[in-house]
Amino acid sequence: MSRVTTHIEDHIAYVTLSRPDKMNAVDPEMAQAIVTAGEELMQSDIRAVVVSGEGKSFCAGLDVMSFAQFAAGDPEALVMPRTHGNTNLFQEVAMVWQRIPVPVIAALHGAVYGAGFQLALGADIRIAAPDAKLAIMEMKWGLIPDMGGMLLLPRLTRSDVIRRMTYSAEPVQAPQALEWGLVTELADDPQAVAVALATEIAGKSPSAIRAAKRLIGVAESGADEDAVLLAESREQTDLIGKPHQVAVISANMSGRKPVFSGDT
Fold first, then answer.
1. Which domain holds residue 226?
2. Residues contacting residue 142 through CB under 8 Å, at least 6 positions apart
3. 103 and 85 in contact (C-beta within 8 Å)?
4. What is the dihedral sign for C-alpha 245, 247, 250, 254?
5. For each of the chain's 264 residues, which pLDDT tens digit applies?
6. Residue 82: CATH number of its domain
7. Are 116 and 42 members of one domain?
8. Do both 114 and 239 map to the same domain?
9. 26 with 107, same domain?
């Protein structure tokens, strides 16, 4: 059975973690399936991505049975090789969504723990059910978060929040996670809200949306002031007067939705 399913409809990619009997816990096979799904979408004509989990939870973390395999193996050989650019396989579970050139929206419910939490951090936007629980769970197993969390978390929340969650491994309720900046908004039906937002994004200029994601990435990278300002100007120059912008202007003037090349 496939651990991850993907389908594309109206330029929106729907990626579903499909291991509900294990609360979508991540083992090596699922990690590879998640990364493969992301890599394949990079080559697709999409405008937004919705990531969700089948069953009772988004993702309950690493598969416990995987810990025994890791402990019996060579940690150096497992963790240290950079197999996907600057990451290993498990780091790429989160980082692949940062690399996808269009907005990624995670719809969160139930347990969002450990590997699942860090996967969600890789998304641009996180919509959470009010009763969802989020946790940096690794300390429970005598480990530290090592799936991109320490790169992504400081962009979202305070140092003391990161330390409290990391040291204690205690789950936090979604309203607290919202207050701390770890989720974007709460919704009784996070999947429906994520789909509605993805649909709205898919109706915007595809080239402008991709440019915006690139530009935000530059701004968050720690680039100096000159580099960010230059990147703003470069991206804008590449949009002004081009077909997608012309289509948006024409649609706005006519009071209708824009139609872009490739729309049906």
1. 204-254
2. none
3. no
4. negative
5. 689 999 999 999 999 999 999 999 999 999 999 999 999 999 899 999 999 999 999 999 998 777 667 667 788 888 899 989 999 999 999 999 999 999 999 999 999 999 999 999 999 999 999 999 999 999 998 889 999 999 999 999 999 999 999 999 999 999 999 999 999 999 999 999 999 999 999 999 999 999 999 999 999 999 999 999 999 999 999 999 999 999 999 999 999 999 998 675
6. 3.90.226.10
7. yes
8. no
9. yes
How far apart are the C-alpha atoms of 124 and 161, rounded to whole Å? 20
**Phi/psi-derived region of residue 236, left when phi > 0, alpha when psi is between -120 and 50, beta in every other case:** alpha
**260 lies in some domain:** no
Contact 229, 192 (CB under 8 A): no
Q: How far apart are CA 48 and CA 74, in angstroms?
A: 38
Residue 196 CB burial class (10 angstroms; 0-12, 13-18, ≥19): middle
For residue 262, is it within any domain? no
Tell me whether strands 133-135 and 172-173 are parallel, antiparallel or unpaired.
antiparallel
What would the two tokens of residue 104 be?
């990624």
Number of domains forming the structure of the chain: 2
CB 106 within 8 A of CB 126: yes
